[in-house]
């Protein structure tokens, strides 16, 4: 059912690609890893669901004007079938031993070790297999840790697993009710501070975003996917060297609660290895795809030395998801995504803490939304916002963002997932093991999946 919806969307996109006016400019995009967003169109009870509240669709704000002097299209033109701009070239060739702009982060390795051969790596965008010697070795990282015996969910959605959803509180399942633990990072501690992040790259348009961030002196946390890193390792180098934080976002972008423990280890381990091979560091932060985490997945991540980072929920049932990832698939329009972002900023002013928002750098549409609309709107927002990367806003020294330079023996946290007060709460999370969002979360839970992308055309991009 879900897969069918995605296949349908893909064929629609394919049809759009075939029209002459889109053909030339879409040429490059066709080779990009295709993570196509879809959203649940029905629940298990058959009741129709939507991905956003009517409130987020009826913003009274004027439609922002098209950015002057850029190639960013008008907001209304940011749609699934839009022609996509040419990509920005890499800015520099970095030498082994080069020092990243972020202070204290390790220098680039010598030589770059990434040599992607499909025979020695998992197949792109497929759940990483568990029968390799690498995964056996990574499984040993779980020794001595208490990994809760929680049965994997059916598919990471609440609607398709009512039994697990009924146990969401005891499982600490974020997807169904927004349950967090004190070890989760879900915000920046300081009010009106936005911990900026982008997920799912490195993508074809990430360089454009990097140029923009540099021009505004902004730093971000990039949650990168292993299957994309092997396609565009140099873009990951640029992200790291420009002073952005790099964190793990799995190999194939599946909802982690549906996977076996060995599969979760494989998904985290292969993404971690791809990052290590390219920029020489092992991140201590990870983000579960779709925010889909429970106490088992948390414990695995912490045992492997990675602290989970989600995004902010307000406690009203909404999360700070711009839904930008649903624009390429045609589920949400550019103006709808931007209206959601405006409501996020409004809601952020009512929090006692800062906040984290879900945005993506994989698609032309999501990058155009970010650099043409959401980031400028946030920079012009009243009251004024402070912009930071997520580790930095949480007071985590940049050295501690990578295992190679981390000196803090209590970060990443020990394996407690109980949410009790013995666990440090300086993470910027809610500081409470509580339900932080309501009934909408099963609706918000995306069912998108990563579909196979083309390696062949990316060959020249490999190191
Ligand atoms: C925006 O879309 C309209 C209607 O499809 C089109 O006429 C116009 O050329 C587009 N503008 C840009 C800058 O893409
Ligand atoms: C892992 O299992 C797959 C499928 O059963 C098999 O094709 C592959 O050769 C196995 N790999 C190893 C390293 O055993
Ligand atoms: C993990 O938790 C279990 C049970 O609480 C405890 O026995 C074990 O010592 C812990 N391991 C570490 C490394 O903290
Ligand atoms: C913002 O808050 C309003 C009012 O509580 C809520 O209806 C809406 O869903 C929230 N939107 C987001 C994106 O947080
Ligand atoms: C080590 O990490 C813990 C948890 O984030 C933090 O509370 C503590 O302040 C850190 N210590 C140092 C010296 O940075
Ligand atoms: C934790 O929850 C309690 C009860 O709902 C609330 O009073 C308190 O403010 C919360 N603490 C934080 C840090 O959110």
Automatic annotation (TrEMBL):
UniProt-recorded name of the protein: chitin deacetylase
Membrane-topology descriptor: Lipid-anchor; GPI-anchor
EC number, as in UniProt: 3.5.1.41
Species of the source: Suillus subaureus
Biased composition (Low complexity): 416-425
Signal peptide (UniProt feature, chain positions): 1-18
Keyword Cytoplasm: no
Region described as Disordered: spans on this chain: 37-69, 404-435
Locations listed in the record: Cell membrane; Secreted, Cell wall
InterPro entries reported for this sequence: Glyco_hydro/deAcase_b/a-brl, NODB_dom, Polysacc_deacetylase_ArnD
